[in-house]
Amino acid sequence: MHSGSNDAIFDQYRSLIYKAIDSGDFTAIETLFNHNLSTVDLAHLLESTPSKTRILLWSFISEDNQGDVLTHLNDDIQQALLGKMSAEEIVETIQNIESDDLADMLQHISPDVSDRVLQLLPIQERAQVEGLLAYPEDTAGGLMNTDLIMVRADVNVETVLRYLRKLSLPESLDRVWVTDRNLNYQGSLAITQLLTNRPDELVSNIMSSDIKGIDAYADEEEVAQVFERHDLVSAPVINAEGILIGRITIDDVVDVIRENADHNMLSMAGLDEEGDIFAPVVKSSRERAVWLGINMATAFIAAAVMSRFETSIAQIVALAVLSPVVASMGGIAGSQTLTLIIRGMATGHITRGNLRWMLLRELGVGLLNGGLWALVIGAITVGWYHSVSLALVIAAAILVNICLAVLSGTLLPFVLKSANIDPALSGSVILTTLTDVFGFLTFLGLATAFLL
Amino acid sequence: MHSGSNDAIFDQYRSLIYKAIDSGDFTAIETLFNHNLSTVDLAHLLESTPSKTRILLWSFISEDNQGDVLTHLNDDIQQALLGKMSAEEIVETIQNIESDDLADMLQHISPDVSDRVLQLLPIQERAQVEGLLAYPEDTAGGLMNTDLIMVRADVNVETVLRYLRKLSLPESLDRVWVTDRNLNYQGSLAITQLLTNRPDELVSNIMSSDIKGIDAYADEEEVAQVFERHDLVSAPVINAEGILIGRITIDDVVDVIRENADHNMLSMAGLDEEGDIFAPVVKSSRERAVWLGINMATAFIAAAVMSRFETSIAQIVALAVLSPVVASMGGIAGSQTLTLIIRGMATGHITRGNLRWMLLRELGVGLLNGGLWALVIGAITVGWYHSVSLALVIAAAILVNICLAVLSGTLLPFVLKSANIDPALSGSVILTTLTDVFGFLTFLGLATAFLL
After folding, report:
1. Most buried of B93, B323, B384, B395, CB within 10 angstroms?
2. Which homologous superfamily is B281-450 in?
């Protein structure tokens, strides 16, 4: 959770801003924007402002700061703001942006404008950005920065230091890269090594080859796992020939982790992680309508199954009342399994290699929990409807449905992944459809067979 | 997603291990463990192994490596392994572990054993660990490490370099801390500044005071946000008096981000993020049974509401078939809103200050989407049951239920947070109960009033 105190400060800023807008006296906003708030804070404030007010607020941000604020905004909002600017205005705004951020931005605006922006850039920067645009956004190449400090293994510490003093070093620089004459990646040299070793020590003696070069086409989640497993601050990116072409820093990796976590959470509700929570009503409604439509279709599939048993229901109305209970117990048991498997696959703990063990384990869990809740729900049913046969039917249906649910929850992510479908996005809706259908079929089917 | 190739390698290791266990010839495991795998890999392998096999595999890890492997294991598994060791064995194992990792570990074992471990530690380390144990695990104090490199503002670069050469510096060190005579935090000095400035330059001229000291009791999520907003690699922790007491590094922050993201995802299915996915069947069943029980209770609440209308259902069986559709549309619409609000609160974008705007926006979305799907579902109902009045009733119920759902989804997280209940854990079950009850009440209520 965000700190309460921080929230309170932003609430104060917001009420100040709304007051200023209402009164038409914008000096308070100007003062606030130019003196009190960092570019990170300004981006946060824009992200938490309704879209109409946002455009007004954007105009109060000084041109020097606009580029930096842009890099901190989420894609949707960035896109919306850039969409209102000409290529010339964009070039003006993005002057101080690093090449990797710029490449990301250009991927989100219309190709015409982004071509024009590229043409207006200084030739060297243009080449850099075009190089980065060659890699998909969600790969190591899309994450990397091309400002590299490279040294050779056969020079000494003093030479490296002399070279570094000529450059303007980023504060967070933790290591420089060692390459051969042809820029083949060989290893890295920690900055701390430069402090503690003698000036005549050779780089080859103090460099480390522990950090392997990351392939430019490696998936960003794979990059994140390399950083996490080896506690890295920066890592080298190489092309297919082993040539060093860029470096990735931990701050970009943190963004990847956060975004993918958000993606997993939001996509389970059919939402887009780059979406703007303060988008206008119509835009939000449209985005969410698709998911509602998909779920409506699945609800009607379940309803169609149930309608096959209308004659049974007409005779024993209790079946209508108890059917949703059977379906929902399966849904919960299945979604627990599904969530565990999706996460286990993401962390690499669950693979095809231990799928069989996992299936048996989940079936065990299904039998135990299915048995337990079959007894409980059977008992409740006897108490409520005073019918032992109805209780036996619902107990059997609960047991069967929970077992089918955990088996589906285990297998479904593997099936979806083989079909290249994101299990986090579509897994839960497919699973719920299955558990609803199984639930209605087993309960109403058994009831029709044994109670009528 | 974890890289396919990496998964494949681990699958090979696993089949090698299972073969070795089956044949009773453990030399292959010993070779693998002592030569091919890093401690990070060993931890990963243990985490993806059923609990029985895990204890066998643990015994093949050399004593020198066991401590390091332990730090990379998740809490549940760490605890299980430590639980089988005496205090003396634990002390033997943890010799090379950093004090912050050790403090975390001791918080998870029985107080008797952890007291005994503390007594067996060298006096200085014991004091350090006890100092860390004073802070809750999920605060800045619980995350920090106490190995600090501190310099004074009135010395020059040469003095600092001379001092640093005497220490063994961690490779990832990006900055040292500047304090006054009383250890009050004053600012930080980037290592790169030491490389590029003249030996006689004073620290006071090149230090930065941009990074503010983090309060030792600050929540870990707040710490993560500070790191993300300012792209930090390390940050100072201060006590109430402003005295520098520790530093937090980005690798620990990455763990916090990952764990909290997992928590959000898993708790929505009533699961524990530190849980062991390879726990035995009985343990897993017990953990998940609670959530199934809670959901059973809510399903019966909804069933009780439905049973009030049994006479209506007996007359029009279509009501039984269509009721779940009405309930589920509300459930989906509500959970979309709930997910957005929970995430917006976590990122600080949504606060009480813009709750009113948010409510109006969501009501707008509810009216639009409710209206749209009321029309669609109404039309389907006419086609299916050839009854315009039934279609009108279900359309009205859909519209009302979706609007109530989005309003509940917006307000619920605020209500739960005020009551100090984690909205990610209990929000969705409460919301689904509400939307089921609203759905049955509006649909069956309207049907009873107008169709009978």
Report:
1. B323
2. SLC41 divalent cation transporters, integral membrane domain (1.10.357.20)
Q: In this complex, how many residue pairs, one in chain A and one in chain B, have their CB atoms less than 8 Å apart?
A: 380
- Cα B229 to Cα A1, A41, A266, B226, B408, distances in angstroms: 15, 8, 22, 5, 32
- Write out the DSSP string of A361-424: HHHHHHHHHHHHHHHHHHHHHHHHH--HHHHHHHHHHHHHHHHHHHHHHHHHHHHHHHTT--HH
Q: What share of chain B is helix, strand, coil (3-state, %, to 5)?
A: 70, 10, 25
Please give the backbone phi and psi of residue B234, each rounded to the nearest 5 degrees, phi first.
Answer: -145, 155
- The share of chain A scoring above pLDDT 90, in percent, equals 53
Q: What is the pLDDT of residues B254-311, one digit of tens each?
A: 989 888 888 878 888 888 766 677 888 898 898 899 999 999 999 999 999 999 999 9
A305-317 burial by CB neighbour count: b if 16+ within 10 A, else e?
bbbebeebbbebb
CB proximity under 8 Å: B 314-343 to A: 314, 317-325, 327-329, 332-333, 335-336, 338-340, 343
Q: What is the DSSP string of A141-191?
A: HHH-B----EEETTSBHHHHHHHHHHS---TT--EEEEE-TT-BEEEEEEH
Per-residue confidence (pLDDT) for residue B233, from 0 to 100: 93
Instruction: Specify the CATH number of the domain B4-132.
Output: 1.25.60.10
CB contact under 8 A, B336 and A191: no
Is residue A154 within 8 Å of residue A202, measured between CB atoms? yes
In whole angstroms, what is the distance from residue B247 CA to residue A361 CA?
A: 42
For residue B281, give how far its alpha carbon lies from the nearest alpha carbon of chain A (Å). 5
For A214-260, write each residue's pLDDT tens digit: 999 999 988 998 898 888 999 999 999 999 999 999 988 998 988 88
Please list every residue in chain B whose beta carbon sits closer than 8 Å to the beta carbon of residue A277. 340, 343-344, 349-350
Residue A306 C-alpha, separation from nearest chain B C-alpha, in angstroms? 6
CATH code linked to domain B150-267: 3.10.580.10
Residues A386-424: pLDDT tens digits? Answer: 999 999 999 999 999 999 999 999 999 999 999 998 888
DSSP-based three-state secondary structure for B138? coil
A318 contacts in B (CB within 8 Å)? 307, 310
Q: Do A361 and B281 touch (CB under 8 A)?
A: yes
Q: Where are the domains of chain B?
A: 4-132, 150-267, 281-450
Q: What is the mean pLDDT of residues B55-66?
A: 89
- Superfamily of chain region A4-133: MgtE N-terminal domain-like (1.25.60.10)
Q: Note the pLDDT of residue B274.
A: 63
pLDDT bin (cut points 50, 70, 90) of residue B20 is confident
Interface contact B195, partner A, CB < 8 A: yes
**pLDDT number for residue A262:** 82
Rounded Cα–Cα distance for residues A53 and B134 (Å)? 46
Q: Is any Cβ of chain A less than 8 angstroms from the Cβ of B235?
A: no
In angstroms, what separates the C-alpha of B58 from chain A's closest C-alpha? Answer: 17
- Nearest residue to A190 via CA among A222, A216, A164, A224: A164
Nearby residues of B404 by Cβ (< 8 Å), 6 or more positions away: B330, B434, B435, B438
B208: closest CA of chain A, how far (Å): 10
The answer to whether B1 contacts A346, with C-beta atoms less than 8 Å apart, is yes
B21 exposed, middle or buried (CB, 10 Å; 0-12, 13-18, 19+)? Answer: middle
